Amino acid sequence: MRTGGLVPDEMILRLITNELSQRGWISGAQPAFMSFTSPVPEGATSTINIATDSPIPGLDTDPSIGATLSRQASEDPAASFLLDGFPRTAVQAERLDNIVPINWVVSLQTPFEEVVKRISSRWVHEPSGRVYNTTFNAPKVPGHDDITGEPLVQRADDSEEVYRARFQKFRETSEPLLEHYAKKGVLWEVHGLSSDEISPQLFQEFEKRFL
């Protein structure tokens, strides 16, 4: 896969299926187990090699076909997992539903203008990767790294214009996704301006549901 490219849906779904199958939490899924480091098998065509963007043979079948939740997973609280960043669309969510039922979806809600303010206030020391924010983690000397004294820079995608465009695209894909899970009764939204506000609510709700 080219640098910065997204991992194809087929690859992600197969990795999820394989992991849950190996743990004994689902059964009956397509058997061609693989990981990100698995060698490309010989033969057929389909899907994408994440290293080269070339087709991966033998991965043209839906990994969710025949998958069923095992009794162990449905009854054992330890048979739990967290997905972060997937699914990103309603179509991906529907395909994931065919592999395993999702019982809780958390949507973090922070006002748009607050996010814009934080992004536009972010400065970076590129050689080290240290990140500063003039609103809550400002450098000791404005515009300079605390350790080396070297100048800080703002990334091109940290501009308000770029973020507004990205946010609009995000809304177009996330709204159908949230609606999908809301209809299933598993969507939970938490509102706040910072992790100090959001985290306590999240932990409290988690304990209420699962502990």
Structural commentary:
- The protein has 211 residues and is an alpha+beta fold.
- The chain has six helices and six strands.
- The chain has helices at 9-22, 71-75, 90-97, 112-120, 160-183, 195-210, and strands at 26-27, 68-69, 105-109, 122-125, 130-133, 187-191.
- Helix 3 packs parallel to helix 5 (160-183).
- It is elongated, with a radius of gyration of 21 Å.
- Residues 31-61 have low confidence and may be disordered.
- This is Adenylate kinase active site lid domain-containing protein.
Summarize the model shown:
36% of the residues lie in helices and 10% in strands.
Outline the secondary-structure elements.
Blueprint: H1 9-22, E1 26-27, E2 68-69, H2 71-75, H3 90-97, E3 105-109, H4 112-120, E4 122-125, E5 130-133, H5 160-183, E6 187-191, H6 195-210
Parallel strand pairs: 3-6
Antiparallel strand pairs: 1-2, 4-5
Helix pairs in contact: 3-5
Class per helix and strand makeup: alpha+beta
Task: Describe the largest sheet.
Answer: 2 strands, antiparallel
Strand content: 5-15%
State the total count of DSSP E strands: 6
| SSE pattern | HEEHHEHEEHEH
**Which blocks of ≥5 consecutive residues have pLDDT under 50?**
31-61
Helix share bin: 25-40%
Q: Given the C-alpha coordinates, what overall shape results? A: elongated
Cross-sheet strand order for the largest sheet: 1-2
